[in-house]
Fold this protein.
Amino acid sequence: MTSVLSGGDGRPSPTVAVVLPGGGARGAYEAGALSVLLPALEARGERVSIWCGTSVGAINATALASLAHLPVQEQTRSAVALWRELRKGDVIAPIVGSGGLRTIVRLLGHGLRVPGLRFASLLDPSPLAGSLERWIDWKQLADNVASERLHSVCVVATSLATGEPVAFVASRAAVPSHADDNIRYVAARLRGEHVRASAAIPMLFPTVEITTPRAARGHYADGGTRLNSPIKPALHLGADRVILIGLEPFGRAAAHAVAPGRPSIADVASNVLDGLLVDQVANDLHRLAAINSFFVDDASRGTVGSSHAYRTSRGRAPYRPISYALVSPRRRGEIGRLAETVFARRYGGVRGLRELDFKLMAGALGSRTRARGELLSFLLFDQEFVAELLRFGARDARRWLRRHPRFWCRDAAHDLSFAHYDRGAVSEREAIEEFRAHRLH
């Protein structure tokens, strides 16, 4: 078998990583995009060797990593089938009925400080533990890493003890050490508890206790609170090329108006989500663009020699030119609008009696607004919504391939949706400061 680290002619092959963010039910969009991208990548003689994911992205990443021994078409069919067959009961327990009553009792007990009654979350994700064991063959995932079909698989969660993002990494290589980036890397044999911790959305889901490895024991919450799109871990693990699936366009979110009066829960949460889903990714992509622009001459010569010497003299790895493929919706809020449309069609009026949980969720989020649609899209584990997201993801992946017949790109002005991208005025502060320091030494 040819290792993922070398091509069929013996020359080293570029190391390809897939980076998948969190987004609840929006994870179906990721599967739809990958169903187009992975076969196209294989047609070029390349395969994914690093998988990095947060929250639902961690579910998709580990599921596909566990299928790496199969032909690519079979991998993508299995991932799409998982989403088509998924139902709300595979992720969260019923809200209406005894489940909701238990939540109310715990909430009251917590407020009254009744011993033994602790409020942990608004929703009960206990079904997810069993679902992960059905969806993901953890032994096969470990075998795929051990046999070098994969280089690394990375799942990001947030430590409650330190507040830092922790990347749990399955790899034959040593895990990175990047203390200056405030990311802790921990070698681990990945299991369901790591993925459930990565997906433990604060307030909605309870924290998860991770028991292995011993050095990282503790309680964790959703990795998206600190690192929703783990681009840096992918680069630290050695990626030369990165496929990033976004759930909103990659430019920074524009300010949006809130209706007069007291903001709703949905308005507040939507602003928080913009910071998690959009701004973090935009910042990392600005950094990637700055590195490619300031420190890389061209594809044939690689990194600028003086930059190489500067980084090496300070004990840091030299910058590498990073090619990327970016897939996201073209218009901001598209997935939220889709969620509202599907909800109205499937659960509006008396039709809501068929699934009272969805009706209750939508009611709690307030009247129909852009913000409500955004939040609803995280929790709408509905087969019609999932089918539409799969279609949207595949559509946008094909759009990328039409614009990039060679699959990869490095031109930030071409793809990153940064208005009037100016190499001389790029706003990524860290890269500019380092560039200026390099010029002075």
